[in-house]
């Protein structure tokens, strides 16, 4: 009959379970892998495979009793570390959502959300489109492979049991400003172009009050907005690739790594 001692159980948990918790915490919020279209079983099996593959090469974890409260707290700590590491990528991917939302507000597409409250989705259709585009571009750049490599490398740079409060948590919070600034930078040309269109219709309404500006303005705003979206894609891939590299650099520097 197979029997395991508490020391053997603690060694097993330290070798496989805690790395699995950190990697799984990253998969909960990482772009594409956190999508509802990816079954939970696939994510769990992928995290188990990665932890089993790299566990023998990781630094020796601290000796903690498997049945103690300290083991539970350590597992939760690893989940939070993986969660915070992948949160940088969540900021990066939602830049595209904000870009689409800003353009939609200028084009009038944001009204579709107000007119369709039964959809249960607060994002304009253009924001969802930009989100899909950003996700595919991130996958095309092999950003998910680099992110998984940083998660694995985090066990060397930030070993298990080091603690969570010594991490630069304010650096994670400051990325919120980077999120809004990057989204505004990408959407600014389209916003300025649509502003000029709205100013033109404002002048037209003053020059010809009898003209139905609303009947003419909404279709023209939509048409000009779609043209702005088309022109914005000429420089969007290269600029968004730089933002992906910045997000991965932030993720690597969060655990003390240097590029």
Automatic annotation (TrEMBL):
Keywords: Bacterial flagellum, Cell membrane, Cell projection, Cilium, Flagellum, Membrane, Transmembrane, Transmembrane helix. This is Flagellar biosynthetic protein FliR. Belongs to the FliR/MopE/SpaR family. It is found in: Cell membrane; Bacterial flagellum basal body. Its main location: membrane. The gene is fliR. The chain crosses the membrane at residues 12-33, 40-59, 79-101, 130-152, 177-201, 213-233. PANTHER family: FLAGELLAR BIOSYNTHETIC PROTEIN FLIR. Role in flagellar biosynthesis. It is a multi-pass membrane protein.
